[in-house]
Amino acid sequence: MKIYIRSAAAISAQKTFGDVPFLTEPVEYQETRLKAIEPDYKDYIDPKLIRRMSHIIKMGVAAARECLNRAQTDMPGAIITGTAYGCLEDTITFLTRMIELEEEMLPPTAFIQSTHNTVAAQIALMLQCHEYNNTFVHKGISFESALLDAIMLLKEGKTDNILVGGTDEMTDASFAILTRLGLYKRWPLSNLALFNTSSNGSIGGEGAAFFLLTDKPNSNNLAELIAIKTFYKPTTIKNTELNINAFLLANSVKIEDIDLVITGRNGNLRNDAVYDALNKLLFAQNAKANYKHLCGEYPTSVSFALWLAANIIKKGVVPAIVAERDIKSQTPKRILIYNHYQNNYHSLMLVSAC
Amino acid sequence: MSSTVYVAGVGVISAIGNNVAENLAAFEREEAGMTEITLIDTKLHGIVPVAEVKLNNAELAAMAGFSSQQSRTTLLSLIAAREALNDAEIDNLSSLRTGFVSANTVGGMDKSENFFIEFTKNNSKGKLRDVFDHECGSMTETVADVLGITDYMTTISTACSSSANAVFYAARLIKNDMLDVVVAGGADSLTKFTLNGFNTLMILDKEFCKPFDDNRDGLNLGEGAGYVVLVSEKVAKTLSKPMYGKLSGYNNSNDAYHQTASSPDGTGSYLAMQGALKKSGLQPADIDYINLHGTGTPNNDSAEGTAIKRLFGPHYPPMSSTKSFTGHTLGASGGVEAVFAVLAIKNGLIYPNLRFETPMKELPFTPEKHFLKGQKIDHVLSNSFGFGGNCTSLIFSAS
Known about the structure:
By secondary structure, chain A is of the alpha/beta class. Chain A has helices spanning 47-50, 55-70, 88-100, 109-112, 118-127, 142-156, 172-180, 237-250, 269-280, 292-295, 302-315, and strands spanning 4-11, 78-82, 132-136, 162-168, 207-214, 223-232, 260-263, 288-290, 323-324, 334-341, 345-352. Chain B is built from 12 helices and 10 strands.
């Protein structure tokens, strides 16, 4: 069975949402936190609801709706989301109030919206969709888990038009904590110069990207999602390489057939050492692209990479801002996305022209 | 794709016992696990009862052979998951494709809520180790690492249906021939955050909860963990121990009515149960026991009861809410109750619905009040419905 991406929509720190040029006007930030550019939510959500919704809910619901709009579909056959951190803003609001008000007179709204399944639930509520609804919350493979669920649903043959998305938000509190934990660089820098220096830490990001998957061929489909795979804590680069080779072999693809490799390079020395090593080995001859300087690092950022890959294939152009050095083929037919999260969770996605 | 998925092992820890045998014994004694709050420093102490696991973190850590610095959720998860895996007695586990699909809703909140006391005053303060494992996925990862499961792991969080969805997803990983063995279920520990959250919703009963009683007045929060070891048909054939049963039906539907409340006619519950029956190829009359979601809130029990009336009437199987023993263990409840479901099949049991007195006016049926042994139980329906309209029903059958 072939699985196709019918449509995709992304809210990110770049101008990616709605009918916009394809990353030809990259947005530059001079800090280590990239905030998502918010659309006019009134076009997507009942204004009465917008007021009560947190950042992640608005991003998720709007991206989901735009994704459906792009496929001219009203009702998906299932709604599946991946989010590592869940609804942080509401969680922290309730937690802070509980501490500051010493457990007295707490308003319930933040608690109600703090559960990890709120985005998927709000999409279902908005669409009145009674179908399969699930939320995965597993660190750096939250989105991949959701995607695997979607692929299995299609293979099981009972449903079509699976809406699947990755969402994570950054709040002031989480940014402060993750900075203290050493995830981000300690001084401001231009995101567009992220790969120019080698140092510890990355830049933080957030976003929401949704996809509508189908097994029905159609000339409007963006791309074919050939396969995905995740693997855990490879012990050596050799082991990582073996895993990638096994993935390619299982899908009858040779590395030289890959027109573009999109990697999860994030500017952090230790993180990028994995890509540096592979670029000398398995990926030595491949054209390469990066994306985390555009959207920042977050556990579901690979959903941005999938949005990028699907659009590169459909539009037949590799935006200059993502290309690593010069790229020979401007119209890649087959893209491999390879991302790892803190060298624990590694994921592969193979995307192809339909 | 049509291959059968069997339950080869079970493990559970809850307010009524630290392992399977203790839980079964408490059912037989008809003894609930609720008490006053003893383990959390909260103003709700003395106001609402809870169903705590009767071990503090140091005792849990000793039992788990693990660090007491871990989140309580992780410790509960490890104890029950390990019991399940040991129970399955799979000798050649390392040569099989093994996964861990676990669910929870609070993650490391028990530690994070301590961190935030200092952090809220000054964001350069607070011990980072208390917030490092805040994510739900951290619980799963830590337990998988201890159990040596590396082929696949993931975490699901769909509020109170979380671990039913974990069991469901795990079974599909086997049916899609991606894995041979999956330890599936979930865990949640009680936290000040959840206690206060549910308190703001005004759905906590100040007495011990009375599920499906006309005078019910809310739920009691509980904690615990429950896991089943699911194996493929091929693996099942190699195991010498008899299987507990098989997962014959499952369905996930959304109520799409309200973020927290259930629709009056229980649309989501109805669709979940109906879909699970359809998947299993069974008729309502084939179900021998329903393990109700049965939280004890007026709204939930009314919606679930109405859906059962629509689907099963006029012939109702015995049913009960084991939350009258364990409290509502939230993200763990689907896993805990999956364990109870297969134990009901294996041991021919129907669990009592404690403290039931007055039938609900709108329902023509009542739950079972006493512990019954020697029953022929071939098919059990287990319901788990949650916030966000996430409704999941599982059907376990004798193998």
